Amino acid sequence: MHEGHSHSAAHASAGRLRLVLLLTGAFLIVEAAAGFLTDSLALIADAAHMLTDVVGVSFALFAISFATRPATSAKTYGYYRLEMLAALANGLLLIGVAIYILFETITRISDPPDIPGETVLAVAVVGLLVNLVCARLLFEGQKTSLNMRGAFLEVVSDFLGSVVVIVAALVILTTGFQFIDPIASILIALFILPRTWKLISESVHVLLEGTPRNVDMAHIKEHILSTPDVVAVHDLHVWSMTSGMPIMSAHVVIADGAPAARILDDLNICLEDHFEIDHCTIQIERADRSHREHAGH
User: Fold this and answer.
1) 164: closest CA among 190, 194, 140?
2) Taking the alpha carbons of 134, 10, 142, 92 in that order, is the dihedral positive or negative?
3) What angle do CA 142, 198, 7 make, to 5 degrees?
4) Residue 115 has pLDDT above 80, yes or no
5) Which domains does the chain have, with CATH numbers?
6) How many whole angstroms separate alpha carbon 262 and alpha carbon 284?
7) What predicted TM-score, i.e. pTM, was given to this entire model?
């Protein structure tokens, strides 16, 4: 068990994530109450969109909490993969929201509701400010964690929703054109879907133990082979346990009589310095033994 990985990339941003949950949860209550009191479908729909932020951030915090639990003999890597499952769940949740928006669009085109523009505008402006603060809090963390990126995309999509609702409210106030509401809904759905697909594909890639996107396997192999007394390398694998946690395993063949301990140290230093891979499992094999094993197959 590798103690150096007790904290994942998402764990570093957990405090900010809690603050985002507090802000979005408080605004959700305000927006939902305003929607029901004014009978505004636009505010109720936007509150439902904000609900995805709350659920998504809750997923992320739940995953981070479990990821910090110590490894056991039954789960030797601990619970890091829960962060990827949460990112996947966030992506599926966002697709559900997009489908809901498209469904509501069809309903509003045939029978657009009478939206009180003043109330919608006031609440949407507050929502815009909340989303700006939340996006700023999550911006750095989303660069290194898919789980954080899921929460960030939800906040950004809701930010766009607030912008679109503000524009729609202004159009309704100045022109009375109610059909702007379903048009705005289509724009929100078109913004959500492509980014959501990328989030889902990346989380599935990690869960399937694909090579990290920023890792060049040929470059790694070249560095290993350039280490003094290394003859060959095979069964080379690099994958991610979760965002920002690459893991590598390899069988390295060394020259007969070469000092295995020194070579192992050189390889670990090289991989950590050049590729930021500090969790490596390297099996050292002697050239004569490796030759006999391959000849026997």
Assistant:
1) 190
2) negative
3) 35
4) no
5) 3-207 (1.20.1510.10), 217-295 (3.30.70.1350)
6) 11
7) 0.70
